[in-house]
Structure formats: C-alpha cells, structure tokens
Write a structure and sequence with these properties.
Number of strands: 6
Helix content: 40-55%
Number of domains: 1
CATH topology: Rossmann fold
CATH superfamily: Phosphoglycerate mutase-like
Distance between the termini: 29 Å
Strand order of the largest sheet: 3-2-4-1-5-6
CATH class: Alpha Beta
Order of helices and strands: EHHEHEHHHEHHEE
Structural class: alpha/beta
Strand content: 15-25%
Length: 206
C-alpha cells in the first residue's frame, strides 16, 4: 500500500520580503505569505488530500503555514510534531544581513559560494550538507515510517530543509540539488511505494 508525502515550503516571511538572510531567526509571515499558505491548503483540499500526521520546524513561519493550510483543509485538529531537525539551514554570521550588503562585505563570489555550494558553510553556519546531516536521520527514522505504513503525511518546513529531503527522496547528486529551487507555498506531493521508491510526483501550482 503506497503512502503520500506532501512537502510545503512556508509562505513568504517578513525577511524574505526584505531580502535578508534568515536561517534560524524567527520572523513571521507577510500578508502575501498568509495568502500563499491558505492557497496551498485550498489546492490540497481540492486535490482530495486528508492527512494522518504533520511535521514542522520550531520556527513560526513554518508553524503558521501549517496552521493556515490545515484550517483550509478542515483538519485543524491534526497531530503535528515540531522538531529542530526541520529548522532552516543556519546562516551563522550572515543571519539578519541584507543579501546585497553581505556581497559588499565579503564579495559576490564568496557569498554565492556560501549560498549555492553543497559543502562550504558561511562563518559559524551550516552548509546544505550540514543541514542534510540533521534532516536525513529525522526523515528516515521519524517521518518515513508513517509514509511506508500507507499514511498521508504533510511537512511544512523551509527551502534548504526541503531541498535536503528532496535530495534523499529523488536520489539527487550534490551537483543536481544545487540548481533545485522550491517555491514558497507550493505543495509537492509524492506517492511513495512500500519499498520507499517514488510512485509519482505532483507539484500543485496555482
């Protein structure tokens, strides 16, 4: 019996709007972010999805996105587990800085390497590889067992957290994941076979 895994990046946050490195900082959603989260819930409901369990990070932008989606689906009472393993990539010394200002401080090439390389972290922060090192065990040991039991699972998290999860799900190489982007508030729906392979994948765009 196949299970279903839905991944959703949180709606636009206040710091996304201001072009700031966010990481483990905790800004809330913008009005647009609220609308994106509600629209994601509406698309999931229209597609007929009902969930058995949810997972999110310790950060308010992901938690609020989950709450808004579930309200639209009519499942506000869904059990949701919050865990630090699903927090966004930690940006270290870059957190809270304007991205253009960071380029002036360290140079465009260096900032690009920190943002887009697989295993080069910013000062006192995490690389995508480091992020994966905490996401992958949590996925395999805590989230995946629900899916393999045939349940329908929703995860509301962050761009880099979800990129690490997609990398594992789809067997991507470090080179392939670098160019992979996840839009805010757009559900990615996987049907997972009992042997953990992907049966199909659907992106619920507006």
């Amino acid at each position: 019996m196949s299970g279903t895994l839905v991944l959703v990046r949180h709606g636009q946050s206040e710091w996304n709007k201001r072009n700031l490195f966010t990481g483990w900082k905790d800004p809330d959603l913008t009005e647009l972010g609220v609308s994106e989260a509600k629209a994601a819930g509406q698309r999931l409901k229209a597609a007929g999805h009902r969930f058995d369990i949810g997972f999110t990070s310790l950060l308010v932008r992901a938690q609020r996105t989950m709450t808004l989606m579930l309200a639209e689906i009519g499942q506000s009472d869904l059990p949701v587990t919050e865990n630090i393993a699903l927090n966004e990539r930690a940006y270290g010394d870059l957190a809270g800085l304007d991205k253009d200002e960071a380029k002036k401080n360290w140079g465009e090439e260096q900032v690009h390497q920190w943002r887009r390389s697989y295993d080069v972290p910013p000062p006192n922060g995490e690389s995508l590889k480091d992020t994966g090192a905490r996401v992958w065990p949590y996925y395999y040991h805590t989230i995946q067992p629900h899916v393999l039991r045939g349940e329908t699972v929703i995860v509301s998290a962050h761009g880099n957290t979800l990129r690490a999860m997609v990398m594992a799900l789809e067997g991507m190489t470090p080179e392939e994941i670098l160019g992979y982007e996840i839009a805010t508030g757009v559900p990615i729906v996987y049907r997972i076979n009992p042997d953990s392979t992907i049966g199909d994948k659907t992106v619920l765009k507006a």
